[in-house]
Amino acid sequence: MTEFPDLDFDNIMEEFFLKHKQFSEKDFPAFWEDYKKSPIVEDIRCIFKIWKERIKSRFAFYLRYKDNPKLLAEERPEEYSCLRELCPSYEREGGYKVDHTLCTFPRCVWFSWRCVDLKKYNDWLLKLVLEDSNDGKE
């Protein structure tokens, strides 16, 4: 089974002080017992909880719409409009007669007369979820 980095606040703070502030492993426990009572640590703990909730929310969004561009189009038309650039349209004059054999993607779904490559779609969706909404501003 895959091992993921620990998201426990105390363990992250320990890693921070040991790796980035050059504390010794021997001295850290006594330091942390006193330091974690300071108001700034409580503020950092609160910020950390907010950050974790935002990450969970973003991945819930990803899991909801993964492999399901039709649901994204129905529920989130603003994101779907960006997706249109990734998807070829096979609309024809005189109506919407579509030759589904035109699609050459190994995994695709059809909706709104578009063939959606699910790999491209899922990659795009993951980038959307992970992008920084500040556009690089700190």
Topology overview:
Elements: H1 9-20, H2 28-35, H3 39-65, H4 69-75, H5 77-83, E1 108-111, E2 114-117, H6 118-130
Antiparallel strand pairs: 1-2
Helix pairs in contact: 3-6, 4-5
Describe this structure in a few short sentences:
The chain has 138 residues and is mainly alpha-helical.
Describe this structure in words.
With 138 residues, this protein is mainly alpha-helical. The protein has a domain of 93 residues. 54% of the residues lie in helices and 6% in strands. The protein has a two-stranded antiparallel ribbon with strand order 1-2. A hairpin with a 2-residue loop joins strand 1 and strand 2. Helix 4 packs across helix 5. The protein is elongated. The protein starts with 8 loop residues before the first helix and ends in an 8-residue tail after the last helix. About 12% of the residues have low confidence.
Topology, number of strands? 2
Element-by-element helix/strand order: HHHHHEEH
How many helical elements? 6
What percentage of the residues does DSSP assign to strands (E)?
Answer: 5-15%
Features:
54% helix, 138 residues, mainly alpha, two-stranded antiparallel ribbon, 6 helices
